[in-house]
Amino acid sequence: MKAISCIVAVNSLVEDAVMLSEAAVAGKLNTRAEATSHEGDFRKIVSGVNGTLDAVIGPLNEAIRVSNEFSNGNFRARVDENLHVEGDFINFKHVLNNIGVSVSEVIKSAKSVTVDVVECSNEASKGADEVAKAAGDVAMSSQKSSELTRELLYKIEGINREVIDLSVSNEKISGTSKGILSAANEVVRIGKDAQVLGKETNLKMENVEKIAKNSVDGINSLTEQIKQIDGIVQLINDITSQINLLSLNASIEAARAGEHGRGFAVVAGEVKNLASKARNATETIETVVNSVQRDSKKTADAINTANNEIIDGVNSVNKTLDALNTIIKNATQVTKDIGDIAKAIDNQTVITTNVVRASEEGNTMTREVQKESEALAAVAQETSASTQEIGAAIHEVTELSSRLESEMEKYSV
User: Fold this and answer.
1) Is 340 exposed, middle or buried (CB count within 10 Å of its CB: 0-12, 13-18, 19+)?
2) What are residue 410's phi and psi, to 5 degrees?
3) 276-325 per-position pLDDT tens digit
4) What's the number of domains the chain is made of?
5) What SS3 class is residue 77?
6) Which domain holds residue 252?
7) What is the pLDDT of residues 39-96, one digit of tens each?
8) Is the pLDDT reported for residue 230 higher than 60?
9) Is residue 61 located within the same domain as residue 184?
10) pLDDT for 243-268, tens place per residue?
């Protein structure tokens, strides 16, 4: 009977041992064997196994709790100081607590670095925005500068064409001015010749005036002599001779006087007729003398009128001479002024040539500046595009840093 009881007791122990082992393998560490169902040492064995499981399950549950806190981001969790552990579980406790401490330090450092990264990213983002804006402004300014330079080049080319046209016009004006100067010099020369002729005419007119005055005096004297009866025939003969001479002189002077000598020509003809009649009509001398006396008076009046005309002619010639003098003086001044203008135009032509040369140099330099501006605009556009890409990358880093910072805030350390 004892042998059978022992076998039953051993089988029961084995069953509980297998049950506890399978439960442990299955992770059911809370499973226990009923120690009271065993007797003697078998009860001690089952109680010892249950005690062993109790010694393991306490630290293990605490470790699960702490690990659960860790998994929830609470790395401030530590193993309960009131939990009694011995042996290797003491080291397990320290290791688990050290994991919380180490991870907390790492997370603190990560948080600090994340904050710094976020701040730097924000600053870099702002700087990138400013740089992108500045790059855009530079690109826009470069483009505008290129357009302005192109417009400036167009205007300079227009000015260059205008200056060239001005230079051609100045050359034409210079040639025309020289022609006018030559013509003005010719006018002055002709005026001086006319002045000389006018002076000669004036002298001749003065001589005619003197002759006319003498003729008037002679006619007046003749009239007085005709009144004398004594020696009338001889006197008439003498007068006839004098009248013939006077008629000849009057004809000559009339020819010299030209338009003003028509009166002289008429008088000369009348005097000549009177002389002829005097020769042919001596028998009627008294009648003829009376007639001559009357005609002499008319002749004297005509000669006086002619004399007045001659005086007017002399005055006209004097006025003409004065006008010629004024014309010559003005023409001389005009000639001088035209000469000064011609010199000024020549100087202006030289200046215009220099301006054309400078304008062409400016045109060349502006073309070079335009090329540089276009190249700068292209570089600025590329820089702006690159800056925008960098800015986008920095914004992305900033966003990731902010997300990392938010994630790090989930952890308690």
Assistant:
1) exposed
2) -75, -20
3) 776 676 556 656 656 766 776 677 677 678 667 767 766 776 777 687 67
4) 2
5) coil
6) 158-369
7) 888 888 888 888 777 777 878 788 888 889 888 888 888 888 888 878 888 898 888 8
8) no
9) no
10) 777 777 777 877 787 777 677 667 66
Residue 97 near residue 78 (C-beta atoms within 8 A): yes
Q: Is residue 24 part of a domain?
A: yes
Query: What does the angle CA 33 – CA 34 – CA 38 come to, to the nearest 5 degrees?
Result: 110
Q: Is the pLDDT of residue 186 over 70?
A: yes
**CB within 8 Å of 400: residues ≥ 6 apart:** none
Please report where in the chains the tokens 């073309």 appear, as a residue. Answer: 367
Alpha helices (runs of H) in 258-284, residue ranges in sequence order: 262-280
**Domain ends where: 13, 38, 72?**
72
Q: How far apart are CA 209 and CA 304, in angstroms?
A: 11
How many angstroms separate the CA atoms of 260 and 272, rounded? Answer: 20
Is 142 contained in some domain? no
Q: Half-sphere exposure of 289 toward its Cβ, with a 13 Å CA cutoff? A: 22
Among candidate residues 258, 242, 267, 247, the one with its CA nearest the CA of residue 204:
258
Coil, helix or strand at residue 237: helix
CA distances from 36 to 13, 21, 32, 47, 279 (A): 11, 19, 12, 9, 217
Helix residue ranges per DSSP H, 26-85: 40-71
Which of 60, 49, 68, 66 lies closest to 88 in space, CA to CA?
60
